[in-house]
Amino acid sequence: MEAKRALRQEQGKRRKRDNTIAIGAGTAAVILAVVLQLTVFSSNPTEAEFAAAEAGLSSPSASPAASNSADIPSPDTAAGKTFTGELALNSGVIGVELNGTAAPQAAAVLKSLSDASYYNGAFCHRLTTSETFGLLQCGAKTEDGADDANYRWGPLENTPADNKYPAGTIAVARTGNDAYGNGHQFFIVYKDTTIPADTAGGYTVVGKVTSGLDVVTTIAAAGLKAGVNTGDGAPVAPVTIDSFSLK
After folding, report:
1. Nearest CA-CA partner of 193 in 136, 152, 148
2. What is the C-alpha to C-alpha distance for residues 160 and 175, in angstroms, rounded to an integer?
3. Staple partner for 210: which of 56, 82, 95, 148, CB 3.0–4.6 Å?
4. Burial class (CB in 10 A: 0-12, 13-18, 19+), 116
5. CA gap 81, 189 in Å, rounded
6. Global pTM?
7. pLDDT tens for residues 130-154?
């Protein structure tokens, strides 16, 4: 009887241990999925950054220097101003408003780039369609989302304290864990979205959609190209920018 009782106790301990391992493995998988999603959300994650996130859930490099590229416009050119205009996609026109009071540096950059017709012909290469993560990311010169690594700026401005980005938000995409990792790209939130902050903070909210948000929701409703990332990838039909005008 003593031997049977000891055997039952050992079996009970083993079941508890196996359950703990299974729960821990499941939790780790969820954490990894979130970190990878946020890493890929960066405008230009490098292969090294992605590998580091996959292996160690952290960035492989030290904190970048806090400085802007030489060709970044001064925030003074947008401070206190409101810019309105249109973002014309191949699938429709979106009315936009940029807030130079809340985000003067970001507004100055987007105004400068639009004045230079930089966005004409650029791609909206990334679409997310999960329940609480809905956005269209635009501004890449190639369909793979590549950006010019020499065009970088900061700081972060007007980032939501609660990590919530309401539908219609226009915000700046950036590299992960880098407050000076903004580039040419931006994203339009088409449904209320939560994006957890990384070690640098949140994402600069530079403006809002004033009309035509249905253009983006229609793109989202069409879905994604077939691939390995469920809910996160390229739109099923290529989306390009015809023009981006601000005044």
Report:
1. 136
2. 18
3. 95
4. exposed
5. 23
6. 0.77
7. 999 999 999 999 999 999 989 999 9
